[in-house]
Amino acid sequence: MIGKRVKELRIKKGLSQQDLGMAIGVTKVSICGYESGSRIPNLEKLVKLADVFETTTDYLLGREVPIMNEENKRYIGSVSYEDVNLILELRHYPNLYNKLLKDVKRSASIINKRLMK
To answer: Model pTM?
Structure first.
């Protein structure tokens, strides 16, 4: 997952492998290895990659989905795959989904009370 995300983000940022390597202190060959999956960045390089791409290490590791601002396409946060799956599952029930969206806090409180009985 790291390789796929590094390549995708590098291309989105308009960086060459050489540029990215210089930004995090490794060679173009290392970046190529990360992208192909034949090498895995150490913790220090993983953090530097996240900084360059303005994302999280969890995203690079495939643990979350980024949330981007629609206007300026900047990263504003992330959501876990479990949360995405919950939302996608709820969308199979449009009446319930729309009702939950009307008052999210109240809906969550009601569900919690019923589950904790």
So the answer is: 0.60
